[in-house]
Design goal:
This protein has 177 residues and is mostly beta strands. The chain has one domain: UDP N-Acetylglucosamine Acyltransferase, domain 1 (3 Solenoid). The chain contains no helices and 22 strands. The strands form four sheets. An eight-stranded mixed beta sheet has the order 2-5-8-11-16-19-21-22, with no helix packed on it. Strand 21 (155-159) and strand 22 form a beta hairpin. It is globular.
Length: 177
Amino acid sequence: MTASHGTGLPPWDFADRGEGVVLEEGVLVFHPENIRLGDNVYVGHQTILKGYYQNTMSIGAGTWIGQQCFLHSAGGVTIGKQVGIGPGVKILTSTHAETAPTTPIMDGSLEFAPVVIGDGCDLGVGCLILPGVTLGEGVQVGAGAVVTQDAPAGAIIAGVPAKVLRMRGHNSGGRSK
């Protein structure tokens, strides 16, 4: 059963919806028939789950998604179990192909690439994950990072563009610079 701490939500027909799912007030869902939610998934206020007529969005059990996030699954999105997604995070899976300088970019064809977020990752407030990125298990992404490439399991990444600062469990003696 879907629950809300807010005023209630439409009975969307998800491809799969686990027990204990919470969708807060103002959540928008597009193409719910292509979205799978595991048990105890939480989706914060005003988040957009932008399913697409092709490909799927899969969100693993115990994942927490903060308010005002935007998840776009035109190219496919797979989010593992126990993932923390901070407020304002954006996950994109499509882009417009490069066009001639005299052709409007919007006239370019769409290119799709899946995003995969491994189990136990944490995506900091306001970070942006671009099409085709895979984050290994337990990756920590810094607030405001722009993630343009894959990161190995256990990496701590930050910056624009995001780079590996260190591996979790390897204390560098203080904050990374």
